[in-house]
Amino acid sequence: xxxxxKGVRRVLRLLARPVYRSGRTRAIVVQPFRGxxxxxxxxxxxxxxxxxxxxxxxxxxxxxxxxxxxRRLLRxxxxxxxxEARIGECRGTFRADSxxxxxxxxxxxRPLDRDKAWHGVDLRLLEPQEGEEARGLFFVPPxxxxxxxxxxxxxxxxxxxxxxxxxxxxxxxxxxxxxRVAFPGVAALYRGLHEGTNHDRNPMLYVSRGxxxxxxxxxxxxxxxxxxxxxxxxxxxxxxxxxxxxxxSGEGHKEALIRRMLEVYPDLPFVLVGDSGQRxxxxxxxxxREHRGRILAVYIRDVSDSGRRADIxxxxxxxxxxxxxxxxxxxxxxxAEHAAEIGLIxxxxxxxxxxxxxxxESLEEV
Length: 366
Fold this sequence. Notes:
It is a single chain. By secondary structure, the protein is an alpha/beta fold. The protein folds into 2 domains: 2-139, Immunoglobulin-like, CATH 2.60.40; 148-365, Rossmann fold (3-Layer(aba) Sandwich). It has helices at residues 2-21, 62-73, 165-174, 186-195, 215-225, 253-264, 280-290, 306-321, 332-341, 347-365, and strands at residues 28-37, 41-50, 76-77, 82-87, 90-95, 101-107, 118-127, 133-139, 148-152, 204-211, 232-236, 270-275, 295-301, 326-329. Strands 1, 2, 3, 4, 5, 6, 7 and 8 form an 8-stranded mixed beta sheet that branches. A 6-stranded parallel beta sheet has the order 11-10-9-12-13-14, sandwiched between helices.
């Protein structure tokens, strides 16, 4: 019972976090999401939301968390809100859409510090009322970066059941920390790709089919499993996305996203990671053919039946014919082994993937 009560409290605090982070008494808040950028431009998203006011008194407790969760459930986007974004002396104003979603595309007038990977963008609400402020973060590849990674989340990093918010809360907080939410060894693999062979700090760009309302949950998931954090480039909320604020039907979004990233980072090759359950193998194979020499490797987590595997193996031969590699496996270690062979990760990182996989699998058997 104590462990269940503790888990419930963690769930409540996670759900309430975007409310009490913004200040308990404020009726309108600006919620930024992580963005990305280059030496020329910065792209970020966020939402301007109206929420019920609450008294700014009393210590945080279960009852206060419950109230804040209710406040979050009652939040609504503020249509056509006007927000100023500022990075150093560079400023721009941006208007939210009819649901309060905000897309910031800001041209930079001076270079950023390329020794840093994460930079801040200050947001200030101008309409419908002045004063509310927030600080967002965006990733710019440092000079040390050698490649960029675009990875799916659902069925690639985490088990498909985790796409259901209630199941994810249960697995993250109500069960032990060792419960299998992430695939065994995947966190060590992603740490290895991020660090590269010489503390490269390679960009990690993530894609999810979930709605923006799961953003805090994904943050908690990444921290919990020590997976390198990065911008989540596509989450859905009636079709809204970082790459296209006016909405997507969903069809073709990943192809457009990859092409956009190849344009934003023309000097970096890419590693693509996905799963066999959707169209990731076909999409990634098309990207290899379209952008010869830019895709270092494709890693596909095998979550499908044997008939599907035969189709993907044919794609793998086609990918190899144009100078790249497609690795299909249910095992993170197989992906890591190939990554080490072609110089994407170190042998030490490979060892860590093996150790993490074995530890997590042994815990599941207990």
